């Protein structure tokens, strides 16, 4: 009992520390550093007694309200202001002494400092508390769950910490903790879906015919599933009750194949299926409620069909780069019942499923694909996952050289493919850590796949309305981005969310190695232009243009839709080619 209590305290402490790290990194990047409130090497005398001893610089943040401050010992930081922390935070209010704080107190304190701008956001405080509680439970479950031996799903279910720069990365608001643990990938679970017997006339399909897949997962024909978290919502819906009374649909409960939830929580995997099944849930994960709007499914299937020549061209120009296509979507249509169109839309969204290509068994066996978010993070013991992987079989003296070669192989594939899609074809991919999958050849990155065509956009200037005639008006609206907004999305996802985190984890506090890894990106940008032609936006990166970083904290504070997120511009650490050669 004592050992169990000590373990639970340890998991709680880890979850608390992670929440503090996420919040401070978000606040630093989005508020403190742009406003000149942060001293990353504080040497003054007004410091907490608890930080009088110990090594490492102190971070002090002074707030707009006089007399309020935060102080904490830094572990190490990056060129983009991403930090680790080596102590608990200390808070100071006007007329009071420094006090040591846990995550809840720290978050409450920061929300109070931000309240003059946006009001006190109690909803975000609750979401952060929820994220901490869920993280604590998931850490405990993950410690006891064995790996499966399938690199793809082991990585998908290994993302214990989630988004490193989000205030509530593991919040699953409104879902009881028992259901969270029963269906969350981090608990390494297998789950059946919730199934209904349906009148086949209800089924609506876009793209490829996937009836055989539904029959295989459900065990027989004329069945249709939803995510277990969505079942209660559906069963309580008045239109579904009416459909049941007419004999059009009958709930059967949990049944069928045992599937594995992936890192997005709602997307399901099974090694024997041709597709991942991306289900719909009315649950907020990070910034968005993850329902499957029909126009988004429509656009995803259209991206598979409409852009087929572009996907082929990108793959030919950048061997090893690919996109996981989404050739089908399904839902149920209850419009024959009549009544409120909004009510029909709600049911359509809840039943929406997107079908994403699953790399075949031979591909999985050869390349051992893994999601980037599971590599560029730390494990539950605080150790860099990718650094541990690289150091196997490499002497300590040879690590830096190996890290540079490994990173250049990965970043070259990713950036070459994403930039060809954007600059040659006007396609705005979203290659953040959870959307990027790496494949390996003898330990080196040799394949990169980008996924989530639902989040893929088209540059309006390159894709006029007449070329999208097959899409509904709402779907066309959802996919069109301006060139400027498209570049922000590409640059943020690829350079800041993805590669900056890879550099942070690979360098692990080694400033010289960090500079060498950023220099690789400069060299990749230069080579890309030599091969495919000069692009002012890439040349701007080499000449020091700032990097756009999406403001996840501000998005949640001001309760904006994710599409309406704004950006903070970060000092560019990418070396121009001449300097890159000197650094290397």
Automatic annotation (TrEMBL):
Chain ranges of the Aerobactin siderophore biosynthesis IucA/IucC N-terminal domain: 152-376
GO terms, biological process: siderophore biosynthetic process
Domain Aerobactin siderophore biosynthesis IucA/IucC-like C-terminal: 405-564
Single GO MF descriptor: acid-amino acid ligase activity
Record-stated family: Belongs to the IucA/IucC family.
Protein name per UniProt: Siderophore synthetase component
Protein species of origin: Dyella marensis
Lineage of origin: Bacteria, Pseudomonadati, Pseudomonadota, Gammaproteobacteria, Lysobacterales
């Amino acid at each position: 009992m004592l050992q169990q209590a000590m373990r639970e305290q340890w998991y709680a402490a880890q979850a608390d520390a992670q929440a503090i790290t996420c919040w401070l990194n978000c606040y630093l990047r989005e508020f403190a550093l742009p406003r000149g409130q942060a001293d990353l090497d504080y040497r003054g005398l007004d410091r907490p007694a608890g930080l009088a001893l110990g090594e490492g610089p102190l971070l002090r943040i002074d707030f707009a309200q006089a007399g309020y401050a935060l102080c904490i010992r830094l572990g190490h930081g990056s060129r983009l202001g991403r930090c680790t922390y080596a102590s608990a935070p200390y808070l100071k209010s006007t007329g009071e002494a420094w006090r040591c704080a846990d995550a809840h107190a720290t978050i409450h304190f920061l929300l109070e400092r931000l309240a003059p701008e946006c009001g006190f956001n109690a909803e975000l405080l609750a979401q952060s508390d929820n994220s901490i509680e869920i993280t604590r439970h998931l850490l405990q479950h993950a410690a006891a769950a064995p790996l499966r031996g399938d690199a793809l799903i082991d990585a998908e279910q290994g993302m214990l910490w989630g988004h490193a720069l989000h205030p509530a990365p593991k919040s699953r608001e409104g879902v009881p903790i028992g259901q969270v643990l029963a269906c969350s990938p981090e608990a390494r679970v297998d789950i059946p879906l919730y199934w209904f017997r349906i009148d086949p006339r209800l089924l609506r399909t876009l793209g490829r015919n996937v009836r055989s897949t539904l029959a295989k997962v459900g065990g027989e024909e004329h069945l249709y599933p939803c995510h277990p978290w969505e079942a209660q919502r559906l069963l309580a819906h008045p239109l579904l009750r009416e459909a049941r009374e007419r004999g059009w649909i009958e709930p059967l409960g949990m049944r069928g194949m045992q599937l594995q939830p992936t890192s997005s929580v709602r997307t399901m995997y099974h090694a024997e299926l041709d597709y991942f099944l991306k289900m719909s849930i009315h649950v907020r994960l990070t910034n968005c409620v993850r329902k499957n709007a029909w126009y988004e499914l429509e656009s995803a299937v259209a991206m598979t069909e409409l852009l087929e020549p572009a996907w082929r061209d990108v793959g030919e120009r950048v061997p090893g780069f690919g996109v996981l296509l989404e050739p089908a979507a399904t839902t149920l249509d209850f419009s024959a019942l009549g009544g409120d169109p909004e009510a029909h839309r709600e049911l359509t969204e809840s039943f929406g499923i997107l079908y994403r290509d699953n790399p075949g068994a031979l591909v999985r066996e050869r390349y051992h694909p893994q999601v980037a978010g599971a590599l560029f993070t730390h494990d539950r013991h605080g150790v860099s996952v990718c650094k541990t992987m690289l150091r196997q079989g490499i002497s300590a003296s040879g690590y830096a050289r190996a890290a540079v070669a490994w990173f250049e192989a990965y970043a070259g594939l990713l950036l070459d493919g994403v930039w060809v899609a954007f600059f040659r074809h006007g396609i705005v991919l979203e290659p953040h850590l959870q959307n990027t999958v790496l494949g390996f050849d003898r330990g080196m990155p040799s394949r990169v796949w980008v996924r989530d065509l639902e989040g893929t956009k088209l540059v309006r200037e390159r894709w006029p309305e007449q070329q999208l005639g097959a899409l509904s008006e709402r779907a066309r609206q959802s996919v069109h981005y301006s060139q400027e907004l498209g570049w922000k999305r590409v640059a943020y996802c690829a350079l800041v969310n993805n590669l900056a985190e890879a550099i942070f984890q690979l360098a692990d506090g080694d400033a010289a190695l960090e500079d060498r890894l950023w220099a690789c990106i400069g060299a990749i940008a230069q080579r890309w232009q030599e091969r495919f032609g000069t692009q002012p936006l890439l040349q701007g990166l080499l000449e020091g243009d700032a990097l756009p970083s999406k403001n996840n904290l501000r998005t949640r504070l001001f309760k904006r839709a994710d599409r309406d997120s704004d950006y903070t511009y970060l000092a560019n650490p990418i070396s121009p080619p001449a300097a890159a050669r000197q650094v290397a």
